[in-house]
UniProtKB/TrEMBL annotation:
InterPro entries: HTH_LacI, LacI/GalR-like_sensor, Lambda_DNA-bd_dom_sf, Peripla_BP_I
Highest taxon of the lineage: Bacteria
Keywords on record: DNA-binding, Transcription, Transcription regulation
Domain HTH lacI-type: 7-61
Protein name, as recorded: LacI family DNA-binding transcriptional regulator
TM stretches of this protein: none
Pfam families for the chain: LacI, Peripla_BP_3
Source species: Streptosporangium longisporum
GO MF term set: DNA binding
């Protein structure tokens, strides 16, 4: 019978060309180490698939670590509300929470995850839309492995799972279902020409929302028109710019707008106003997320359980809930931004 030789800390030290003490310091995160040295050690850890023995786990089990949430920015309500849920649950569980921002830069994300590993965070929760490609899958798998080796857990929140039984825990929401429901709401009100505002091909959140929109059109036997799918980022400025450009082409060839989130809807409403178009008398509009400014605008939208997402992410990370994908429900909140079309 052949036995697999266990990779030891000595193997890692040899591969990285440093002392065992240095490897130990990098893994423990309890002593300053040059970034270049730390990177060499972490590369060797990954290449050898080194998993520290019970020592690392015992260290992290000895005291509760912080729960870290990593987001693009805290100035977008979507992220801020999920962070709020994380903070509340972490506090309930007697943990501190750390909020880290990447500005959407994968390089910054990587260094944050490394730092959190060294700081012995108990869990790292990564939030938000991503382009799911091979590079992304590889990066997330490496994060999950390297965090697990330090006794920490990775949770993907509002991001697609890696693969069946992959190393990361996942909590998501029914993105496509919400988009289907809100598009069906417009269709039931008689709208047939519905502009989708905020297409971002390849981005997980955008792809699911567009898929829901197209599904609803198909279910109502309304042909999808690519000319009604307008590209744009998930921001107020992008919504304003994209709709202004569209309206400058001439009178709208659509009666309703599905904005990919409430911020885009807010920008679009400003563009409509500047073109003398009133909501909902001249144009119907719906959003997604149910964050301010949806209430103030009287915007019909899809409610996202932001705090529940954050709370569930923490519970999963601490092993309080079932492991495996957890998809939370979404529902429409009907306000005053959709006008039923009179069918003549
Ligand atoms: N709503 C859902 N995903 C979002 C994102 N990535 N940015 C802003 N708002 C969002």
């Amino acid at each position: 019978m052949s036995t697999v030789k266990r990779v030891t800390i000595r193997d890692v030290a040899g591969r990285a060309g440093v002392s065992v003490a240095t490897v130990s310091r990098v893994l423990a995160g309890d002593y300053p180490v040059l970034a270049a040295t730390r990177n060499r050690v972490m590369r060797a850890v990954r290449e050898l698939d080194y998993v520290p023995n019970a020592h690392a786990r015992a260290l992290s089990a000895a005291r509760p670590g912080a729960i870290a949430i990593v987001v693009n920015t805290v100035s977008v309500p979507y992220y801020a509300y999920i962070a709020q849920g994380v903070e509340e649950q972490a506090a309930r569980e007697g943990r501190l929470s750390l909020i880290c921002t990447t500005g959407g830069d994968p390089g910054r994300e990587l260094s944050i995850v490394q730092l959190l590993r060294e700081q012995r965070a108990e869990a790292v929760i990564l939030v938000g839309s991503v382009v799911v490609d091979e590079e992304y899958r590889k990066r997330m798998t490496e994060y999950a492995r390297s965090l697990a080796a330090a006794g920490s857990r990775l949770v993907l929140c509002g991001r697609p799972p890696l693969e069946e039984g992959g190393p990361a825990l996942v909590v998501g929401f029914d993105n496509a279902g919400g988009a289907r429901a809100v598009t069906a709401h417009l269709l039931s009100a008689g709208h047939r020409r519905i502009l989708y505002l905020g297409l971002r091909p390849g981005h997980s959140t955008s792809d699911s929302r567009v898929a829901g929109y197209r599904d609803a059109l198909a279910a109502h036997r309304v042909p999808a028109d690519p000319a009604l799918e307008v590209e744009g980022e998930f921001s107020r400025e992008a919504g304003y710019a994209a709709l202004t450009a569209r309206l400058s082409l001439g009178p709208p060839d659509f009666t309703a707008i599905f904005a990919c989130n409430d911020l885009v809807a807010a920008g679009a409403i400003q563009a409509l106003r500047e073109h003398g178009l009133r909501v909902p008398d001249d144009m119907s509009i719906v959003g997604y997320d149910d964050v301010p400014p949806a209430v103030d605008l009287g915007l019909t939208t899809v409610h996202l359980p932001h705090d529940e997402l954050g709370r569930t992410a923490v519970r999963l990370a601490l092993g309080r809930d079932v492991t495996g994908p957890t998809i939370l429900g979404t529902h429409i909140v009907v306000r005053d931004s959709v006008r039923p079309l009179v069918v003549r």
